[in-house]
Amino acid sequence: MNMKRRQFIGTAGTAGLYFLSGGMSACSFAKREDSFVFVEAEQFEDFGGWELDQQSMDIMGSPYLLAHGLGIPVRDAETSIIFPSEGKYRIWVRTRDWVAPWNAPGSPGKFQLLINGETLETTFGTQGAEWNWQDGGILEMDGTEARLALHDLTGFEGRCECILFCQDLDFVPMNDPEALTRFRRKLLGLPDEPEDTGIYDLAVVGGGFAGVCAALSAARNGMRVALIQDRMVLGGNSSSEVRVWPEGKTCQEPFPHIGEIVEEIAPDIPQARYGSRNALRGDVYNDERKILAVKSEPRITLFSEERAIAAEKEGNKIMAVIIQNTRTALQKRIRADYFADCTGDAVVGFEAGADFELSGTGIMGMSNLWYVMDASDKDEVLKCECKDKTALTTAFEIGETKQPFPRCPWAIDLSDKPFPGRENYRGQWGGEDPLANLGGWFWESGFDKNPITDIEKIRDLNLRAMYGAWDTLKNIDGMYPNHRLGWAAFIAGKRESRRLMGDVVLTADDFRNQTEFQDPAFPCSWHIDVHNADANFNDGLEGQEFISRATEADEQYSYEGVYWAPYRTLFSRNISNLFMAGRDISVTSEGLGPVRVMKTCGMMGEVVGKAASLCKKHATNPRGVYEDYLEELKDLMQQPGHKRV
C-alpha cells in the first residue's frame, strides 16, 4: 500500500474488522483471511468541491465530506487506492439520507461512487435517518490499482464518511460508534498511544476570539503556549466560515487597555450589506489578520485542524489533552501546566469532569447565515464565492443571467407560510428591502435541541429552512429571476452550549442590579440578549422553528452603562488548573446574554492570558491568583496589550 495517509489496506486488521461485525472470540480472529480496503473520506487526495465537516466528531469519532453546493453539484472528490489482490469485493459506503429524520420526501444528498471512471449502479445517500453503511454491491477487480471519485448529483448536502471494500461478500459492518472508532484506527494503522509534543505553560483549546486573545496575551506575558483549533481558520464565529460580526465595547475604564488585543485581530468595519455586517463576503472577516498575529508570536505553537477529544488528569488537575487531526486521525498529547477551555462547547472541561450546566429547554439556537446575489450585477458576479464561478462569469458575459432553482419537496414547506423576506414580512430589526431579511442572525434553530449531540440535525434544519424559503420565493412567488444563493455557512454559529461553573456564577440580575465584585475583569456592554423562537413565524412549524426573536433592550433586559464582570467566572471551581473564556464561562443561561458577543469573549481571553502568567510566576493556580495576587492581576490589566516581557 502507498500510505501517503490516504488509506490502509491489510489482513492484519481483520480482527478489528471482525469485531466491528459483532465477533466476540479472539481466537476466531486468526481464522479469518479476508482482505479489505478502507478509505476515509477526509483522507481523499483531492476534495474537489466537497467540504470537510468536523462538527460531529464528538458523536461520530470522525469527520466527513459534505457536498455543499447550494443546489449546484460540486466537483468530484478523488483519490487513488491499491487493492491487495484481484477478485470480487463487496462495497460499503458510510452515509445517510439527511432529510429522513423529518420523513421528508426525496433524498437530496444523492451521490455516486466512480471506480476507474465507471459508475456503480447504487446511488448513495438515499437510505437511513442515521449514519449507516449503504451496500454498494459487488465489484470485480481485474487489477490492483483504482481511482475513486465521489460524484455529487445535486449540490444539496450529500455526505460520505468512509468507504469499505471487503472480499468477504457476506460481511456486514455494524454502526456502534465506539467499535467503529476502534475499527477505523486499527485499519488505518494508527498507533495506540498519542504522539507526545512536549510540555507547555498553557494549552489554549479553541481558536475563536477568546482563544486567540488568550494565547496572544499569555505569550506576550512570557508563557509558552499551545493554541489548538479544529479548522484551518481562526476567529470562530467571526471567521470567513461563519461570518458573525464581532460586537462589544472594548478599552473601557478603569482598565482601558483591556480590549487592545481584540482590536488587533478584529476585522475592519466594512460597508454593511442591507444594514447588517453579518454574512458578508469572506474576505471582510480578515482571517489572515488573526493567523498573522498568532504566527508573529514565537512563544505560540499553533495546532490547526486538530480537535480536542479527551483530557487526562490526576486528582482535580488536568495533565494533558488529547487532540486528533481532522484529516489524518493521528493523535497528539498536549501536556501543560495550565489549560484554557475556549471551545464554546466546554469540551476540555467536560472531558475533565468539571462542573457544568447545560439548559435542557429554551436554549438559544444556532444560525447558518446565508445571502443571495444578483447574477445580472457585474460586481456581484466578479465577487461571487460560488463554486461554479467560472461558469457563472461566462454566462454573464454572454448575457445569460436567469437563475432557475429546482423545487425542493424535502425542504421545509413554506409555500403557504410567512417568513422574513417574503412579501410584507420582516424579521426583528430587518430592513425594508425583503432581501435584507434573508439569511440574517434571526434565521436560527435548535431551541429544544442539544447543541453537541444534535449539531448535525440543527444545522440541517437551518439548511432545510433556507432551501425551502428560496424555493418558495423563486418557484411559488416568482420573485428574483436573476438571483441565486451566493453563500451559506455549513459550520454552525452557536450561541449557547455547556457552561463551566466557577467560584462565581454570574446572573442576569447581577447586571440589572449592578452587583459589584472586587475582581472586575472584563467589560460587558451588550444587552441581556436571549433568543427564543419567534411566535410570529411558528404556526404549523412546531419542532421545526427556524426564526428567532431576541429580547429587546428594555428595562427588563438592559442595564446601566458598562458592567465589569468578575475574574472568578473565568476559572473552574473544581478543576484546579482550568481557565475558561468565551461563551462557556460561569454564567446562568440568562446571564450568558450580555457576555457571549465576540469582542467581550476576546477580552476574557486577554485577562486569562495575564492571570495564567501570574500562575506560572507564583507557582499557583487560577483561584490562587484571586486569593493572593489580585492586585498584581489588576496591575497587569493596566499594561498595554502589545507589551511583551
Molecular structure report:
- This protein is α+β, with helices and mostly antiparallel strands.
- 21% of the residues lie in helices and 24% in strands.
- The strands form nine sheets. Strands 13, 14, 15, 16, 17, 18 and 30 form a seven-stranded mixed β-sheet that branches.
- Helix 1 (14-20) packs antiparallel against helix 4 and helix 13 crosses helix 15.
- The longest helix has 22 residues, at 455-476.
- The relative contact order is 0.13.
- Residues 1-33 have low confidence and may be disordered.
Short description:
The protein has 645 residues and is of the alpha+beta class. It is built from 15 helices and 30 strands.
Mean pLDDT: 92
The whole-angstrom Rg is 25 Å
Low-confidence stretches: 1-33
**Percentage of residues in DSSP E strands:** 15-25%
Shape designation: globular
Distance between the termini: 50 Å
Number of helices: 15
| Amount of helix | 10-25%
Quaternary form: single chain
Main sheet makeup? 7 strands, mixed
Number of strands: 30
Kindly name the structural category: alpha+beta
Layout: helices, strands, pairs:
Elements (H helix, E strand, L loop, with lengths): L6 E3 L4 H7 L5 H4 L6 E5 L10 E3 L3 H4 L3 E5 L8 E6 L4 E9 L15 E5 L2 E2 L12 E10 L3 E8 L3 E5 L1 E5 L10 H11 L7 E11 L3 H12 L4 E5 L30 H6 L21 H9 L4 E5 L1 E9 L2 E9 L5 E11 L5 H6 L3 E2 L8 E2 L2 E5 L3 H5 L6 H9 L46 E2 L9 H22 L6 E6 L4 E2 L4 E2 L7 H5 L7 E5 L6 E3 L14 E3 L12 E4 L11 E3 L17 H21 L3 H7 L1 H8 L8
Parallel strand pairs: 13-14, 13-18, 14-15, 18-30
Antiparallel strand pairs: 1-2, 2-12, 3-4, 4-11, 5-10, 6-9, 6-12, 7-8, 7-10, 16-17, 17-18, 19-25, 20-22, 20-24, 21-23, 26-29, 27-28
Helix pairs in contact: 1-4, 5-13, 13-15
